[in-house]
């Protein structure tokens, strides 16, 4: 029963058994990850922007929406290109690298929790290294306090490139890298560790074929994001700063966020309700689209065999 509802994974296991050592590179995994993340990011960007304003200003949902409304529609999608590009690359790296690493760890399957955790953790590290610069530019663009000084991504890049080599890395493109690394690696490990078990368990209940992937992605994304939300807030605040002034250490940044939130966990989690909604929709859509593409590919392969 379980295999009938896991066509994509069944195909992967069978292919590995037939040709061990030949499946560490699966180009489809990269393509499916790119497409699913592109669509889900475009759909949920308005929610993301409201959440970002809450993280920066510690305001209620209504106030964040009012700010965006007051700025006008010409600024509403300001900053969409960096996340659209970065999330598409994220999906490409996250799903593709995870699939490749999983095949290396266990060439013929089956995959244990240990394998999924290790592959997810390492794919998150790759993702953090490759995509931190995109998130850095995105967070500056979405900060309304920077609109006059930095009206476009090009102006931000010019600022970063005016620094010396190490300045470009530590103060420019990789500002706030360590919390990004921790957040991405742990988040990917949690997501991939429990995505398939939840999806397979729901599939056994005889639900419509699209429900298990949607629910699995939503539950995983929501829980993971809530656990790591303080790191998300820390990254947003660290990466919104530009220039040589006011560049505190990681610990000083943690203290600053804690103090500006009145030393209350409730205020650290300001915007948590929208994070739940955004994570549920984003990861639910991403997982469902990815699963749909996998099954379509499997069906086409069966027809040609």
UniProtKB/TrEMBL annotation:
Localization recorded for this chain is: Mitochondrion inner membrane
A molecular-function term among this protein's GO annotations: NAD transmembrane transporter activity
Q: InterPro entries recorded for this chain?
A: MCP_dom_sf (IPR023395), MCP_transmembrane (IPR018108), Mito_NAD+_Carrier (IPR052465)
Solcar repeats: which residues?
24-104, 111-201
Segments spanning the bilayer are 29-48, 176-194, 214-236
Identify its membrane topology class: Multi-pass membrane protein
Instruction: Give the matching PROSITE patterns.
Output: SOLCAR (PS50920)
Tell me which family the UniProt entry assigns to this protein: Belongs to the mitochondrial carrier (TC 2.A.29) family.
Where is it mostly found?
A: mitochondrion
User: Which keywords fit this entry according to its UniProt record?
Assistant: Membrane, Mitochondrion, Mitochondrion inner membrane, Repeat, Transmembrane, Transmembrane helix, Transport
What GO CC annotations are associated with the protein? Answer: mitochondrial inner membrane
**Which protein are we looking at?**
Mitochondrial carrier triple repeat protein 6
Gene3D superfamilies in the cross-refs: Mitochondrial carrier domain (1.50.40.10)
């Amino acid at each position: 029963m379980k295999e009938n509802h896991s066509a994509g994974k069944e195909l992967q296991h069978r292919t590995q058994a037939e040709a061990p050592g030949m499946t560490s590179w699966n180009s489809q995994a990269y393509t499916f990850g790119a497409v699913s993340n592109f669509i889900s990011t475009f759909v949920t960007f308005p929610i993301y922007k409201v959440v970002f304003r809450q993280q920066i200003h510690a305001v209620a949902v209504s106030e964040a929406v009012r700010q965006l409304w007051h700025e006008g529609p010409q600024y509403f999608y300001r900053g969409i290109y960096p996340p659209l590009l970065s999330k598409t690359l994220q999906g490409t790296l996250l799903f593709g690298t995870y699939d490749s690493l999983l095949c290396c760890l266990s060439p013929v399957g089956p995959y244990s929790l240990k394998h999924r955790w290790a592959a997810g953790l390492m794919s998150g590290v790759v993702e953090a290294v490759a995509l931190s610069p995109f998130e850095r530019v995105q967070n500056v663009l979405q900060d309304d306090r920077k609109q006059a000084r930095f009206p476009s991504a090009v102006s931000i890049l010019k600022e970063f490139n005016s620094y010396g080599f190490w300045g470009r890395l530590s103060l420019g493109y990789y500002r706030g890298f360590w919390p990004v690394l921790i957040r991405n690696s742990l988040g990917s490990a949690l997501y991939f560790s429990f995505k398939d078990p939840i999806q397979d368990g729901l599939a056994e209940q005889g639900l419509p074929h699209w429900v298990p992937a949607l629910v699995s992605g939503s539950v995983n994304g929501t829980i993971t994001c809530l656990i790591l939300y303080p790191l998300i807030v820390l990254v947003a605040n660290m990466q919104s700063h530009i220039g040589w002034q006011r560049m505190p250490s990681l610990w000083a940044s943690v203290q600053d966020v804690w103090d500006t939130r009145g030393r209350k966990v409730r205020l650290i989690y300001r915007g948590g309700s929208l994070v739940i909604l955004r994570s549920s929709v984003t990861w639910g859509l991403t997982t469902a689209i990815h699963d749909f593409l996998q099954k379509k590919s499997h069906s086409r392969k069966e027809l040609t065999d």
